[in-house]
Amino acid sequence: MPLRKHWEIPGAIGCDAGGMSRNFKLIIEYDGTRYFGWQRQVDKPTIQAEIERVLSLVTRQPVILKGSGRTDAGVHALGQTASFHCDTRLTPKTFLRALNGLLPADIVIRDCCEVPDGFHARYDVLAKTYHYQILNHPVPSVVERHFSWHIQKPLNVKAMSESLYCLVGTHDFKGFEGIGSPRTHTIRTIHRAEIIKNGNDRLRVVIKGDGFLRYMVRNIVGTLVRIGMGKMPPADMERILLSRDRNLAGATAPAQGLFLVEVQYE
Q1: CA distance 198 to 5
Q2: Could you give the 3-state DSSP secondary structure of residue 176?
Q3: Of 63, 81, 115, 233, which one has the greatest count of Cβ atoms within 10 A?
Q4: Cβ neighbours, 10 Å, residue 253
Q5: E strand residue ranges, 89-144
Q6: 41-76: per-residue pLDDT in tens?
Q7: Which residues are catalytic?
Q8: Domain boundaries, the chain
Q9: 3-state secondary structure (DSSP) of residue 1
Q10: Which CATH class is domain 127-264?
Q11: Using 50, 70 and 90 to split pLDDT, how confident is the model at 199?
């Protein structure tokens, strides 16, 4: 993966030792195609590990990122959020320039700002918005192959949309939970669930909620596609929700169509 032009500010790297401990928030965009998800792993490339590596180069001290949550291997982000504490005199503007100058081209820091010491990118989340992209066309797309799920058979978008209404509100989403989900309970609140058509052959599933279980969005989308293909009636979405039985839901949708679009805080 080609790197951007190297960040060059004479004397900037490592010049901030002896500063005061401060808290910073990053908004991050990334193409997750070649990464094994957000969370740091011992021997595999991840988004968190790559940004921490560059932050340590810039500050010459260990830096640990606290992400708003995990994204899985192959999942993308337009607005992932992370925070980190650092003993530094560098400004947010300098961090922004340095990180974008040293990170690979498939990771971009969209914004960097200083936040109160108690801010935590994960624990202070109010809501997250995910988009899932579907290319519903007989012929696949080379350009979009890493950013959408290609479905050849025409989908019944009306039936799919009808099935989503039951998800809005506070419910137990165990029926859409992936195995090994790190959670204390399966109750979540969904604020928005809809399908947006973009032309004749592109669909965007939009789901906003206060939190999500592992594979929850992808399992909902997999169920939606079965409904769109006529393999399930729209009423089955609510039946699965009430049953809390994952075996009744559709297969997990592929990772490449999923985007973490926005993380909201107070």
Answers
A1: 35
A2: helix
A3: 81
A4: 23
A5: 107-115, 127-136
A6: 999 999 999 999 999 999 999 999 999 999 999 999
A7: 72
A8: 20-115, 127-264
A9: coil
A10: alpha beta
A11: confident
Angle at 220 between CA 35 and CA 258, to 5 degrees: 25
Residue 18 has pLDDT above 80, yes or no: no
Judged by DSSP in three states, 174 sits in helix
Alpha carbon distance 20, 30 (integer Å): 30
| CATH fold group of domain 20-115 | Alpha-Beta Plaits (3.30.70)
Neighbours of 229 (CB within 10 A): 16
Q: Do domains 20-115 and 127-264 have the same CATH topology?
A: yes
| Amino acid residing at 67 | G
What is the rounded distance in angstroms from the CA atom of residue 150 to the CA atom of residue 61? Answer: 44
The full length of the chain comes to 266
Alpha carbons 46 and 107: distance in angstroms, whole number:
11
Continuous H helices in 20-66? 47-59
What is the arithmetic mean of pLDDT over 166-178?
95
Q: Which residues contact 229 (CB under 8 A, 6 or more apart)?
A: 153, 155, 156
Strand, helix or coil at 130? Answer: strand
Q: How confident is the model at residue 103 (pLDDT cuts 50, 70, 90)?
A: very high
**Which SS3 state, helix, strand or coil, does residue 54 take?**
helix
User: Which tens digit of pLDDT belongs to each residue from 20-31?
Assistant: 789 999 999 999
Any idea what DSSP says for residue 210? S
